[in-house]
Every structure is written in C-alpha cells, then in structure tokens.
C-alpha cells in the first residue's frame, strides 16, 4: 500500500504542477508526506476555497484517509468528484475502502466496480497496477459476502481464482462460500 500511496501523492503533486496550482498544494503534499496532518488539512482546505476545489478535496480525502477518518475521507473524495476531479481507478479504490471501513458495503461495491470499469477505458497515465486490481477484486468479493449475496460472491471468487490461483486467502474464502 505504501508504494501506491507514494504514486497517488505524486499524481496529486503533478496535477498541481500541470494545472498551475500554487503553494498550498505543494505545501499540503509535503505536509502529508511528513505526517503533519493538521498542516495538510489547512493547505488543502485553502485550495478548496481558492479556486482548485477538486484537487483540494482530493488532498483532504487522502489526508483524512491517512488519519483513518474514513467518513471524512469519503466525503472529501465525493466532493472532489463533484468539483470535477479526474475520476481514477485509484480514487475509486480509496472510496471503496472508506465505504467498507464505515460498513457501507453496497456503496463500497459500487465504488469498486466503477473503478474496475475504468480499467477498460483508462490510458497509460492512470492505469492500475496489478496489485491494485487484485486488491479491488478481493474487496469486491468481501462486499458481496458482507451483503450475504452468496451467488455473486461465489461467481467473483471463481473469477478471482482463475486470475490469481495461488491466493490462499481467497482459496479459503471459496471453501467458506461452498457452505453457503
């Protein structure tokens, strides 16, 4: 997850450079990298008020996510999308994880599936790495299980194991689902 986190931070910083954002974004990303969440929140909040709301909310979402404040992270990511942030596989994954952490498995499933759907239309700039795809497909199974949708969970486990046959955790999930 750390590798992906660095990639996401780099994407936010690059978006700011490309978009001509000023110091709050650079300062916010730097503060976030250092773990200075209060400074990061202040910088990203300033961005939401000063014209780059989409990236400001995305930064707030990542900061809250890192703070394990999943409700505020999810709301910030939603605000980022509403304010025109580029919708990426990575953002949908984070939204799905946040929804799972708040036990809203229906919404989590929607976010995960929306992110996975982007894979077919994604260009090279934000293509998901295979570890991210695997994580999202695993979380998709968990969301179905948490909603007691055993048939869809079984179908997704079968698809998952065709792609990742050596995953012992999901092999155990498959055994569990056979009892349902």
> What's the main sheet like?
none
At the fold tier of CATH, the topology name of the largest domain is: Serine Threonine Protein Phosphatase 5, Tetratricopeptide repeat
What level of helicity do the residues show? over 70%
- What would CATH call the homologous superfamily of the largest domain? Tetratricopeptide repeat domain
Q: Separation of termini?
A: 32 Å
Mean pLDDT: 86
Query: Into which percentage range does the β-strand content fall?
Result: under 5%
CATH class placement of the largest domain: Mainly Alpha
Question: What's a concise summary of this model?
Answer:
With 180 residues, the protein is mainly α.
Describe the structure.
The structure is a single chain. With 180 residues, the protein is mainly alpha-helical. It folds into two domains: 1-86, Serine Threonine Protein Phosphatase 5, Tetratricopeptide repeat (Alpha Horseshoe), CATH 1.25.40; 105-180, Serine Threonine Protein Phosphatase 5, Tetratricopeptide repeat (Alpha Horseshoe), CATH 1.25.40. Helix content is 77%, strand content 0%. The chain contains ten helices and no strands. It has helices at 2-19, 23-34, 37-49, 53-66, 70-82, 89-101, 105-118, 130-146, 150-163, 168-178. Helix 6 runs antiparallel to helix 7 (105-118), helix 6 (89-101) runs parallel beside helix 8 (130-146) and helix 9 (150-163) packs antiparallel against helix 10. The protein is elongated.
